[in-house]
Amino acid sequence: MSKWLRLFLFGIWGLLLIPLVTPILQKWLEENVFSDPHGLAMTIFPNAGAATAFNNLLALGEQRWFKFALVFLTGIVIGVLLEWLSRTSDDKKAFELKSLGTKFRSLSDHIKVRTASSGWPDNVRDLKPAILSVFISAKKFDLWVPNEHVYQLPDASFLCEYFRSVGTLLENGHFDKATSEALSWKPFLDKVKLS
Fold this sequence. Notes:
Layout (H helix, E strand, L loop, with lengths): L2 H30 L7 H5 L2 H16 L1 H51 L13 H13 L16 H15 L3 H10 L1 H9 L1
């Protein structure tokens, strides 16, 4: 829904709320503004004029069609708010997943450079906190991640390829494919465990 249509709906709904707050406003004005018969407010707004306006608003608030319109429009406003909140939440999740994909691919590149020489997994000790962090983030989005056994593999190619393939899908916004791709790596790690 466009921003202007949403603002229009909220404006109409706000106008419909005026007769509901009129009794409270009338009581407050009578106690605080119109209580002084010689004050400036009585000069500008004679009590009879204000009373007529408040009585008309109160009568409008009692109309059956008005109550129906208020309830109907309240339902529409709640629906629009829920749709907007859902879309905002989905946009935030998409941004976080794309950011996670970027981290995956970055880690893949860093690990690949580090493991060009021998020494896996000792040569990536400083990257382990970053790896653990992205694994925790991925689990929040129900992505399968390898366990600590990945550090017992003879080289880092499994982890590099996992990060590269899943990260690319996440960066490109293919979240369902990334979930199934991540899960497709599980049998490979299980197979290596058995050997």
